[in-house]
Design goal:
Elements: H1 7-11, E1 13-24, E2 31-42, E3 46-50, H2 57-64, E4 72-77, E5 80-81, H3 87-97, E6 98-102, H4 113-123, H5 130-143, H6 158-170, E7 176-180, H7 188-205, E8 209-212, H8 216-219, E9 224-229, E10 232-238, H9 242-249
Parallel strand pairs: 3-8, 3-9, 6-7, 7-8
Antiparallel strand pairs: 1-2, 1-4, 4-5, 9-10
Helix pairs in contact: 4-6, 5-6, 6-7
Bound molecules: adenosine-5'-triphosphate (ATP).
Pfam families: ABC_tran (PF00005)
Organism: Aeromicrobium piscarium
GO molecular function: ATP binding; ATP hydrolysis activity; transmembrane transporter activity
Amino acid sequence: MTQTATSSVLSGTAARARDLTKTYGRGSTEVHALRGVDLDLPAGRFTAIMGPSGSGKSTLMHCLAGLDTPTGGEITVGGQHLQTLSDTALTRFRRDHIGFVFQAFNLLPMLTARQNIWLPLDLARSRADDATRRRFDDVVDVLGIRERLDHRPSELSGGQQQRVAIARALVTTPDIVFADEPTGNLDSESSREVLDFLRRSCREFGQTVVMVTHEIDAASYADDVLVLADGRIRARLERPTPEALVDALRGGRA
Ligand SMILES: Nc1ncnc2c1ncn2[C@@H]1O[C@H](COP(=O)(O)OP(=O)(O)OP(=O)(O)O)[C@@H](O)[C@H]1O
């Protein structure tokens, strides 16, 4: 399998946040969703973000992905400071450097699996050069969807649809892939498959993946787990046991 050496892999850090704050509303309706988050997401690793409802997981992911603007602090993705980009430049940056996998798959129903996977390349008007075709083939083979490429999403199982969505996120060799509850709509067997593919995409492509999840089983596939509480990082755990995760989620570890 081809090991893709992106600039981010060489530099060691795919995304970085410094003193990140996000406040919604004003005065009596003010909500401090993020209260000074510092983090470095190492390139080529699978990181899970966990924490109670309302702890700031989605806000953190949306800020890191350039989908939401922080109130304060700094975010760097693939060496680029996001705050220095205009709206148009940020849109282009997201398209070229960031991949997304959502709970609801978000595939276009009229397009085949193949067309859905090619879509970001078509949007970027990338030439279908040899490297791109090789990447497409590698991603399709790792995800085991070659037999399903000419089917539309409605003709695929939930797990297969999510594998197509992951292939679409990986095909542009993004600096980082953000997955928001990617197994939320899947049965347990499809969930295991999807999590295994996310993990393999880190190992086999040197891809960086960040996943928000509520599920301890899902987080156990990750290399690193960040636990958020009340807008702050409460714990960072490397390949935690389920018991250590439960403990950290209960607030047992600082
Ligand atoms: N657009 C918004 N306007 C006002 N408050 C918001 C907005 N988005 C999020 N919040 C608040 O910010 C805090 C953090 O929300 P966030 O969605 O990031 O948490 P979460 O950990 O992802 O929660 P969940 O697990 O329930 O999805 C919550 O108190 C939430 O109510």
